[in-house]
Amino acid sequence: MAKEKMLNPREAAQRLNVGLQRLYVLLYSGKLRAEKQGNRWMIPTSAITERLQRMKTFRELQGASAEDSHDA
Q1: Which residue has the higher pLDDT, 71 or 49?
Q2: Does a structural domain hold residue 1?
Q3: Which of 30, 32, 33, 46 has the most C-beta neighbours closer than 10 Å?
C-alpha cells in the first residue's frame, strides 16, 4: 500500500488558502489532523481534503440558514 503524501505547513496553508498563522491555529486546536515528525508538523493530504469539505458544508449551512430567515 502506498504511503499518503504529506505536506509541510507552508504547502498545507497554500492548499487551504490561509496564512501560516491560521494554519498553526488549526493544528494546535486539533481542527486539522496532522502529525509531528521530530519538531516539524506534517499534514496528510487527506486532512486537507477533510478540512475543505467541512468548510464547504459550513458555508452551505450558513447559506441555507440565511435563506430561511428571509422566508419569515
Answers
A1: 49
A2: no
A3: 32
